[in-house]
Amino acid sequence: MEKLQSRKAWRRTVAAVFMFTGIATAYAQTYPSQPMHFIVPMAPGGSVDTLARLMAEMLTKKVGQTIVVENKSGAGGVLAASYVARAKPDGYTVFVADTGQLSVNPSLYKDLPYDKSTVFVPVTEAVSAPLFLAVNAKLPVRSVQEFIDYAKKHPGLLFGSTGVGSVHHLGMQLLAVRAGIKMVHVPYKGASQSTVALVGGEVQAALTALPSIRNYVAGGEVRLLAVATPERSVLMPELPTVSESGIKDFRVAVNVGFVLPPGTPVPVANYLHTQITEVLADKGFQQRLITMGLVPMGSTAAEYARNIADDTATYRAVIEASGASQN
């Protein structure tokens, strides 16, 4: 009798799964049938916002539906993440998120207005904004090893960042731990302020994106020592990586991707993945991104999920070790 009931329950479960799958597939066949919304966690004008607008322009032509870009800035992206986490999982709300929202905030904020276990549905990791180890040109170092040696002889060297808990901040903390050096963090409100501080000598070093300092490097006011990606960057292929300099497997970058509200049907995510990666494969589009200091990626959903998990583990450890917190 128990076996019979168990068999009936199993059949009901299988039937429910097939029914849900059928509904999701049928829904995906008519998707998209109305305007879509790209949610950007920053104010207009930055690289994430620009990427979202460029992609929206291209996708509107491909999918035949208007894509509206909405900026929901504030609290380091928490407001935008909370909005998307609660959005209807129908594929019409798309989160254009970076490493900060997906991998840093769950550990940086003790309290979030949404469940920390929330898993956004990954579509693709679209671009990477590599970070470069930069120093004020007056600092007498020309390599990562010289920088480490100098920092060991001068404990308390000042480094700047775009704010407490930013990838720029945590990346330098990670470098300090891995290299065995002691530095003092000076947070600023955004890239423009931290760049001015580095150029003016208020701080001696920083991890920063190339567009922020390109002109100062050309003018001889800032010196680049290495890129913090696993491999040399197409943006500056002549520059070594931090890993090449002895800090093995060092990887710090602000990666930007597209994710969907929890529970969004997989066929919908797959459709978006195909459309977005086709845009990313366009040579003209790639060149526009590189000009902005962004490196095209276009990962699979599974690769993106793994990268988010790996980054989350890395930054959780750094946050716990440094005591960084936003509430």
TrEMBL record:
Residue ranges crossing the lipid bilayer per the database entry: none
Annotated Pfam families: TctC
Keywords recorded for this protein, A-Z: Receptor
Domain of life: Bacteria
InterPro entries per record: BUG (IPR005064), Bug_dom1 (IPR042100)
Similarity comment text for this entry: Belongs to the UPF0065 (bug) family.
Protein name: Tripartite-type tricarboxylate transporter receptor subunit TctC
